[in-house]
Design a protein that fits this description.
Layout (H helix, E strand, L loop, with lengths): L12 E5 L4 H12 L3 E6 L2 H11 L3 E5 L5 H15 L4 E4 L14 H28 L3 E5 L12 H21 L5 E7 L6 H4 L5 H9 L13 H13 L6 E5 L15
Length: 262
């Protein structure tokens, strides 16, 4: 018993939603490099196709919108076919919605909840029998917005708070069935989510994040590869469940440090 080791990625079957860019792409690349059979999906077919081609034969791709039930069923089927089963689901797909209280609309609030919370819940339900058969894992992506408060971020922050609560409740529910559930809470990391939402340009997003370096006790922003490390840990660690792992450079500590001199 004392020699229990973490699970080996080699030949593991992993489904990564939102795999065409950002954290999902980084996770897919890392897991495939470790020998996993990875299936990625995204709404933009050209993006997921290009990422899969770069990764190579260990990666299959599907153009899919995880908010659509028919797409979810087809996606699970493709992942099971490609990997010979399913060992892990990384629910990375999501969208950004930032707006102050005076600009909230029912349509936009329901849309971001559907994109960020409901779709991942229903995909987990669809995948459960396969994950149970392999004693697998589900990983959700939380956000620093759940522990640091920023004006105008409520619509997005509450969806991530819901996911972090889901991690704990679902872990309690599924533990007896051999399925682990975890979450990652990233700090400031440059991805396309703000640009896709039309909030800022790529240049503006990069500049804004760099200005937040002093919000991290390690005095720099993170990378998607560092978030992927945490995702790999949660997939492989057989005695970790119900945990939201902060991979945030200390941003969640609430300390403002002195900027590094260049």
């Amino acid at each position: 018993m004392g020699n229990k080791k973490m699970r080996n990625l080699n030949a593991m079957s992993v489904l990564v939603t939102g795999g065409g860019s950002g954290i999902g792409e980084a996770a897919a690349r890392r897991l495939a490099a470790g020998g996993a059979r990875v299936t990625i999906c995204g709404r933009r077919g050209e993006k997921v196709r290009a990422v899969a081609a770069e990764i190579g034969e260990n990666c299959a791709w599907v153009q899919a919108d995880v908010t659509n039930a028919a797409y979810r069923s087809a996606l699970i089927a493709r992942a099971v076919e490609h990997g010979g089963g399913l060992d892990a689901l990384v629910s990375s797909a999501g969208n950004m919605e930032r707006s102050p209280i005076g600009e909230w609309t029912e349509e936009r609030l329901l849309q971001v909840f559907n994109d960020n919370v409901v779709a991942g819940m229903l995909l987990s339900q669809e995948a459960l029998s396969h994950l149970e058969a392999r004693h697998g894992a589900i990983v959700f992506i939380g956000s620093i917005y759940t522990v640091r408060s920023y004006p105008g971020a409520a619509p997005y922050a509450v969806t991530k708070g819901a996911l972090e609560t889901l991690v704990r409740v679902l872990a309690a529910e599924l533990g007896s069935r051999g399925v682990r559930v975890g979450g990652i809470r990233p700090g400031a990391v440059l991805t396309e989510i703000n640009q896709r939402a039309g909030l800022v340009t790529a240049e503006q997003a990069a500049a804004r994040l760099e200005d937040m370096a002093d919000h991290h006790v390690l005095r720099r922003i993170g990378t998607v590869d560092e978030i992927a490390e945490g995702i790999e840990y949660l997939i492989r660690a057989e005695w970790t469940t119900g945990e939201v792992l902060a991979v945030d450079g200390g941003m969640g500590l609430g300390v403002i440090t002195q900027k590094l001199k260049t």
